[in-house]
Amino acid sequence: MKKYLISLCTLVMLSTNGYVLADKEHDKAYNEKLDKSLMRIIQSNDLTGDPLLNRTVPDINSPKAQLGMDLFFSKTLGGDFDSACVACHHPALGGGDNLALPIGVEADSPDLLGVGRTNDDALHNPEVGPPVPRNAPTTFNVVAWDKFQFHDGRVESLDKTPGANGAGASGIRTPDSAFGVADPLAGNNLAHAQARFPVTSNEEMKGFNHTEYTGQTIRELLAGRLGGYGDEADVLDNVSYWLEKFRSALVSVDGSAEELITEQNVSMMISEYERSQAFVNTPWKSYIKGKTKALSYEAKKGAILFYTASSEGGANCSSCHSGDFFTDESFHNLAMPQIGSGKGDGEDGSNDFGRARETALAEDMFAFRTPSLINVEVTGPWSHAGAYSSLEAVVKHHLNAADAIENYDDQQLTQADIRNLDQMPANTKEALDSASFALENIQLSDMQVGFLVEFLKALTDPCTQDRECLGQWIPDAEERNDPNGDQLNAIDQNGNLL
Ligand code: HEC
Ligand code: HEC
């Protein structure tokens, strides 16, 4: 009788959701099998899930990071008061700008960030688009880099001690020093060394009215502007605003502007803010810590493909995207579509030789730093020139680059003026044909590519998609407004505050 009842029930269920039930049973066993394989992978790769393990991360509420935030959002550091760090690195835009190629100075609307930010045609060659030739990487987790900043590593720690964030004993090389030689003014760590450069770039921040100031002289001019001393002593109505902030961050009640508001302290404060942007609490981390439900079935399949060698049917991603920060901090030529104005390399100057620009080595031709994949879901468009607008497309490029270039769809670019690039195929082909080209062809089905993308999405810290959570890293538009009117309170193309 009991047996009869059960089979009756089964019959009823079969006709309604029996399939789902059977599938769930199967799923459970299958998931356990996946968990076992992943456990082995996690162990053999020595993964902890936490790229910030044993690192000192500044607190966003520390006085230095707070002042750094004000500076990061201030157009006072733009030569013509129309650009700021945040113009290309907004927390609500994944620490980037959501554009393939950034727009710094002379934007039609300086406070409008993301899709819809445009600039005056006169500033750039309309055939190649905006004058900044590379995609803006995220500032999130800069505290986790130990060796290089920038796509070509031109800010480089000469002592590559893991965990040091570039603060090793032998110093940091920057574009201000020769290759392999430490820059005595590079500062405390990689983020500090990097933060001294955007203000020197005409296209990113400086503009074209201060071209007689270069390198150190523009940095000092800007520090003096904030402090009310030096060449632009009278441009701010309210100088005490910044002096008070520096006094409190540096715990110096009566230090003078000349003593406290120096270019070294300005860049140091900014770097403390950037280094506080630690977003690593991903589902992948929870999974490694033992929460097997943190990953979907699809993401688990993707993780296995990611960590499995191509000879064993995997996608071999971890050979470069290795470790808890998903990067070997090394350089590889993937022949990503070379869109934009380029770095002045090649026959007509529209190409970008990448790392070889620094090392002059043939093996570094067209090679770019392996990006971290933590939060990669929110840091698009992807690749060094931002040529891809979907994760599917950039992953597929890795599997068959020649095919991806051949079939490249420029309609994915939201900036219409960088489409129709006559030089893209030839420039990219040069990279593809170079002896340094680093990829093998790997055959995966669309479903497998989907699994890889699901795994990449499991590398997103939910805070990066939550405006309230990000609020700590974005100064309140009303409460904290700089009395000089230079705080960049970003809006999107519909006029809503970011
Ligand atoms: C016009 C857009 C723009 C502005 C403004 C700008 N940046 Fe960037 N930033 C970029 C681009 C593009 C790169 C990559 C350049 C390259 O690799 O050659 C970059 C790279 C970086 C990096 C390196 C990240 C990494 O992973 O290597 C950091 C950090 C950074 N910027 C911080 C700042 C700070 C701090 C400021 C203000 C002082 C600033 N940026 C202003 C566009 C911008
Ligand atoms: C040979 C080393 C190497 C291998 C193998 C590799 N990558 Fe990459 N990956 C890179 C480099 C280098 C870049 C940046 C290239 C550029 O921009 O020119 C990159 C870029 C990316 C990006 C874009 C990230 C961004 O911020 O723009 C994603 C996503 C990515 N890889 C995922 C994968 C996946 C998934 C696999 C496995 C199918 C994989 N990678 C295999 C080296 C590699």
Brief summary:
33% of the residues lie in helices and 2% in strands. The protein is mostly helical. The strands form 2 sheets. Strands 1-2-3 form a 3-stranded antiparallel beta sheet. The protein has a two-stranded antiparallel sheet with strand order 4-5.
Describe the structure.
- The chain is mainly alpha-helical.
- The protein folds into two domains: 63-96 and 136-278 and 467-473, Cytochrome Bc1 Complex, Chain D, domain 2, CATH 1.10.760.10; 283-457, Cytochrome Bc1 Complex, Chain D, domain 2.
- It is 33% helix and 2% strand.
- The chain has 17 helices and five strands.
- The strands form two sheets. Strands 1-2-3 form a three-stranded antiparallel sheet.
- Helix 3 runs antiparallel to helix 7 (240-249), helix 11 (297-307) crosses helix 16 (446-457) and helix 13 crosses helix 16 (446-457).
- 49% of the residues are buried.
- Bound molecules: heme C (2 copies).
- One heme C binds next to helix 4, helix 5 and helix 9.
